[in-house]
Write a structure and sequence with these properties.
globular; single chain; Rossmann fold; five-stranded parallel sheet; alpha/beta
Length: about 160
Amino acid sequence: MKLAIYPGSFDPVTNGHIEIISRASKLFDKLIVLVSVNMFKPASFTIEERKELLEETVAHEGFTNVEVDSFDGLLIDYFNRRKADVIVRGLRAITDFEYEFQMAQTNRRLCYKAETIFLASKTEYTYLSSSMVKQIATFGGDISDFVPEYILDRIVKRLKK
C-alpha cells in the first residue's frame, strides 16, 4: 500500500488545497493531509480548528482514502513514524519551486527514503494562497470563489475586521 502525506499549514484550507488533495488521493492508496505548525507564520486558526475544517472538507468532498492529522514537529519524524512512502507538495508558480526543492532535498537528506512528488496547481489556482484569502477577508472582500462554500461563513467570521 502506498501512503502519501500532504503537509501544510492550511490556514485556512482553500479550493487550491482541495484540488491537490483530490488529485493526490487518486494517485495513492492512502493520503494523509497533515496540518502542521509553521513557526514563521502567525496562524489565524488554531491547529485544532484547521484540522476540523479539513475533516469537514474531506467528508463533504467524499474522499474515502484521505485521513486528516496534525503534528507539531519535523515532517520527516512524522513521515518515519507513519512509514509513509511519499510527500506530496503543490506548486502554484515558479516562485514556489525553489523553497519546495530545498525542502525536498533536506527531507531526503534526513531520510533517504523520503520521496517528494510535486503536483502543479490548475491554472485557476496558481495565484491562490491562504495568505491572500486572509488578506482579502480581513478587509471584507469576497472570498467565496477561493474557499469551500460549506466553511465560508466560519472563515469570514474569524478573519473579517
